Amino acid sequence: MSSTADNNTTRLRLASARRKVTAFLDQIRHLEASDFAHDDAREALEFIREHFNVRLASLTLLPAKVQDDLVDGVCWQISTALSRYTEVLGFILRSTNVRNAFEIHFPLKRLVRKIVSPDVQLVLSSEWNFVPFTYPMSLDLLPNFVLIGAPATESGNVLTTPLAGHEIGHSVWRTEAIRTKALEAATLAWAAVIAGEQTRFDRLLNDLAALKLNAERAETHCFSSVTRQLEEVFSDVLGLYIFGASYLYAYEYFLAPGSTFRDRGYPSGTVRVAILKETAQELGIAFDPHLFDGWQAPPEKGHIEEEVLFFADEAVSRTVPIVRSLAIDHLKTCGVAPPDSAAIARIRANFAAHVPDGEGGTLPEILCAGWEYLREHGGLARDDQQPEYDMLNELMLKSIEVSEFLLRVKTDA
Amino acid sequence: MNAGYGAPSVFLLSDLAIRAAVELERRTLGETLDGQVFDELAGALRRTSQPVSATTPFHFAEPGYYSPFERLFCARESRQSGGIEDIRAFIQRTSDALAQVKGSSLDGAADLQGFCLALHKALIQEMAAEGGFVVHGGQQHDPAETGVCAA
Known about the structure:
The structure holds two protein chains of two kinds. By secondary structure, chain A is mainly α. Chain A contains 14 helices and three strands. In chain A, helix 9 (about 245-255) packs across helix 13 (about 365-375). By secondary structure, chain B is mostly helical. In chain B, helix 1 (about 10-30) packs antiparallel against helix 2 (about 35-50) and helix 3 crosses helix 4.
């Protein structure tokens, strides 16, 4: 073991760690003075603050003579924690920005509580990165929080809300029973694919061995692509069931005309769209049949990567029906109904008359109607159409507010 | 990787490892210690080294654990490489030792402290390699975060 921390360098290093944690806590106090539209973000800050208070106390209580190795470890841990949660503080700060559509918080939170857990909390925010994303109850300090972020430029665009359905799907996927069933099916499919292509798989293992991956590690490496892809499929199906055609339109808005890059954790763009179309057909969701015309497949990768993807994709393909059923059955069990076409038509007619829906349409129904209006008016992207586009956004937001009001009046009655 | 998966996150495990190392230092120095962290670390290690399901036709490690556990196994057991079952058995043995550390000799505690520090370092390296510091790295995948598309 190394020497003890009885020298100036180590003492100063520990002092730096204390100062960094103190600065972090000061920042939290500053953020707590912000104007929060919803309490969830403030409560998230409290949890983080409490944790870092404990961390600061434990730094102060370190034995006077401690090994250098231990000091190094403590400093690494502090840096890692600060790094992870500084980003979360930024996320929470941006949740207070008035560009966010605060109106969608309550209906989304109700949805999350219905399909994830009744005590879950939700923070909606934005990120300076053009990717909708989530921390699906995966932050150790915030295990009961679902954090969903939209790109900053889109955070006021209600029409992209259906993509939150996908992000919520990642939290549902963490339900033990669902994930275990999906993984059992995936491993069976994986074993069947390998058995059918044993020689080809052995060649791949040989190629991976040259990269210093032993057989088991290589197989784990390949299989991780299957599990991650299935999580994405599950989240897509969940988003589609909840938000109906509006999910497809928001998806197309954001990702058209397909990806130029294939991440091993996602199905190929064309396969993903095919799964969406097939699922929409199975659920009886009507949408523009030309929506995904000309969808581009990502370029091929190197030989080894393509071989890994071949086996992973085959296993995914065989498991998709089970994963789809898991998502749909879960939603049905939780009492989630797909958008009602009659309600969508009513809301759509109201929008045509430039009035918000006054009969309590659900969030997905309002979004479906909004997308129909937008698409029927050619996308509303011309300069002279900007007022109409803004009006549509406001009609949707107002409809959501009215719906929330009616729900609360009904609940309190 | 996440709490909901049954296994703790890599970050949480690293936190438990360094806290256990600090408590073992207190023990060596004859100071009052908080023994609860040993049980927490032992339990967390057991959960990370159990199969996701007993009915799966092959066993695999959760993403994020295989590399650090293998490095740790090779370093501590002086082996070139390790299979999943060997690594699992090693983690289980150490987990059992941790659960009993409160009543063990000081020599045993020193060995466990070495394990905790090595485990902590391996996990920190893994988080850095996974892009734990740069979560929007496109090809890199931070298991804590995920999105509708690959950036």
